[in-house]
Amino acid sequence: MTTSTALTTHASVERTAHSTSIANLPYDVLCELYHTAAIFDPPRGPRQGLDDHYCSRPSTFPGDLGWIKLTHVSRHWREVGLGLSALWAGIVCAFPPTIEDILLRAGSTPVAAVLEQDAVTSAYRWSYDDIGRILPRARSLEIDFLYNHRKYDVQGPWCRLSMAGQTLPSVERMRVLDSGVVYQDGHVLRYFGHAPALHTPSLRALSIDLPWPIHAPSLRSLCIHRYAIQWPWQVLLNFIKSFPLLEQLEFLIITDDTIKNSLLGRSRAAYRMDEESLALNAMRRHVDPPSVVHLPYLKRLVCQQDGCAILELMDHLDYPATTIVKIIDCKYDLPGFFESIISRPGFNHAPLDHLTISSVTGEAWETTHSVVRTVWATGQPCLSEQHVSDERSSIAMRNSSFGNLLNRMKKTAVLPPSELRGLALSHDCTCVEYPGIQCRGIAEIAGEYRLTMFLRRCVNVATLYLHHQGQISSNTAIILLAPIDEPTILPALRTLDIHVDEVYVKTWWTDLRAILEARRDAKCPITRLIIRGPGACHTSNCPGHEGLVMKDEYAGWDLDEEVSTCLERRQIHLEAEEFFVEELIDARDDWVYLCECEEHCYSSCDLH
What is the largest CA-CA distance in the chain? Predict the structure, then answer.
């Protein structure tokens, strides 16, 4: 045997031995491998290429087997893989051509079904019969079509999918995302209630965009969304009363006759007004006369206010005083709205004593009409845009100019500034989306005079948050706190919470210390100071090191030592600030790793 042949034979034996050891991996190891592959390499069925919204053509995007490829490694791997029913149940909707095999391999495991419009309209995808066989086994069901675009079918796929009058025993979560252009066809809406009800005894969470009849005695969470035209408040109330065990209720918009035309647009409203008015009237006649709906277990209520219909609806809802209530996109110009809404359970139990005013980036950012977003909340301010998910009652106002905010607050009998316990000035920064626009804080867009007049009315504010305000606005707000004139601005202030986004000049920190000292001496001290943010590392007053080289032993200096000395001189230690307060909380980000001041020092050097 030649040397070359011997080496080849040896390599072949090694590969065979290696393949054998892999093929015979223990069962538990293989299971872990499959589950890991299912996370990082899931199977993907062929995607459709669409000519337009209504027509489809054969698949133009190939699919991928993903973790299924592991079943082709060896007979042992295939036996293990085919026995993992939970993995097969998760991909039922990905590979419709092999529905028989995949359903068999999924065994009795409940499936998660996601049904899309083009999955039914193409000959290469699902049929209604196929889908009907899957739905009874679904534990989670997501549908983005319940309307037939090609045919005016009153009940449409709701019946075709065996939904109407049928029972889905296992489904626990269901989302009906998009009923297509149903809102454009008034005659369809008129018959929405005639379809037999879908029975879902295990359903606990439902998100739906049309009042399709559903019997769900165990429902705990209900979200109403999509087009307002489909949900007059009487229809919504009638729909809600079927679910007395609700704990979470969210309706983002409901029909208000006063805004119907604006929702449709002027040109479209004139064309469809009569048809849709007939549809809405038919929907109202179909439901029972409005009566109080009792929701004794309700923990959370979220709704979008866009007209007086919300008051009508909430007048007919009875829920515990401890319910968290959130009103979104509220308008100031509805007479008596605040007085009425604040009297509801959820607000009188927990007063709205914290206010957040955030400057909002927009196309009018560089004009005098820059807008602010305001949120009243209980317990603490809402410092992020995710206030809807907070576990506190709140009212989020529609964006408005700062001047309009002040005028409306003067005319409103409830929520006066004097009852605030916490105030946050913030900035919802999306400035990078608007080229050439610089971040600006509240003081810059409101003006010092207006801000001063507002702060003078906040006599009971104990906590002030200055977040993402930038050097100019934050400095203006801090200087206004000086106890120079009578009455002192924010006399009850005890906690100052500052978020520093970027390095500020040395005088900014000097002014902060001066205000802390002055208020302490004036017997209205700020006792608690919180400093946050990556910018609270150094001052920005770097003298520059232009003309210096890396190292000059003859001149007796070293650039690294020079930069180190500069950084030490400019570093913020918070020792001086701590001297003037009872408690100082250093909540800065890990600036040791985020600080770029050293790079700025070196960039000012001449390293050539």
Answer: 106
Cα(339)–Cα(6) distance, rounded to whole angstroms? 93
Nearest to 227 by CA among 270, 274, 188: 188
Q: How far is the C-alpha of 124 from the C-alpha of 95, rounded, in Å?
A: 10
Closest CA to 287 of 342, 246, 240, 323: 240
Helix (H) / strand (E) containing 48: strand 47-50
* pTM score: 0.74
Residues 6+ apart with CB under 8 A from 408: 332, 333, 400
Local structure of 470: helix, strand or coil: helix
Find the range with the poorest average confidence among 38-47, 227-236, 312-321, 441-450: 227-236
DSSP H or E run through 530: strand 528-532
Report whether 472 contacts 502 (CB < 8 A): no
Q: Which residue is it, tokens 């995007």?
A: 61
Which pLDDT band, with edges at 50, 70 and 90, does 225 fall under? confident
371 — pLDDT class (breaks 50, 70, 90)? confident
Q: Please state at what angle helix 266-286 crosses helix 233-240, rounded to 10 degrees.
A: 40
Closest CA to 389 of 463, 324, 344: 324
Cα–Cα distance, 264 to 272 (Å, whole number): 9
In whole angstroms, give the CA distance from residue 414 to residue 407: 13
